[in-house]
Specification:
single chain, alpha/beta, 203 residues, 7-stranded mixed sheet, 7 strands
Length: 203
Amino acid sequence: MNPAEPRDFPLGRWNLYLGGAGSRTAGYVNIDLVPLAGVDVVADAQRLPFQAGLFTRVECDAVLEHVRDPEAVMREIERVLAPGGFAHVVTPFCHPLHEYPQDYRRFNLPALEWMAGGLEVVASGWRTGPTATLLAVVLEYVKLLAPWKAWRVAAHGVVGWLTFPLRYLDLLLLRSPEAGRLGNHCYVWFRKPGGGPSPATSE
């Protein structure tokens, strides 16, 4: 994780977490496509069942690659955000295929910023960098060599544990402006105009 990624944008009385699956995040209404434990509302992110301007903050972490119409999701996020509210969108770029239930596409920073619509971009950057990309590919490659599912599960745990400390190399690599050429996940913070002054843009 990039320590330079901002995380201090305000929460409100109502906040929305898209695609939280079986996890529960305190202070958020958690929606997903399936009724897993921790999911508050079963819904499609392309058609959110909420009134306009309800949420102070929306988290959309590794969701857009799984939907057929990511721009529709972005417009729904814009619609349900309150004026002055913030949306945090994180997507993979150089990352192996991961179906949930499908995996359709990848995004870089210009692609995310292009989908801003009426939202302001207030911060953007890379959450995980080239080392995370390399380790994710190595892990999937090793799993391909395992003939049985149990072996693949074991390989995931063992190789992931052994190589995890190498991820700290990204603390150095993410300082380079070229790191995004092999970036693993990128993020953008958006703000809906209105409701007070906008913070300074950072990257």
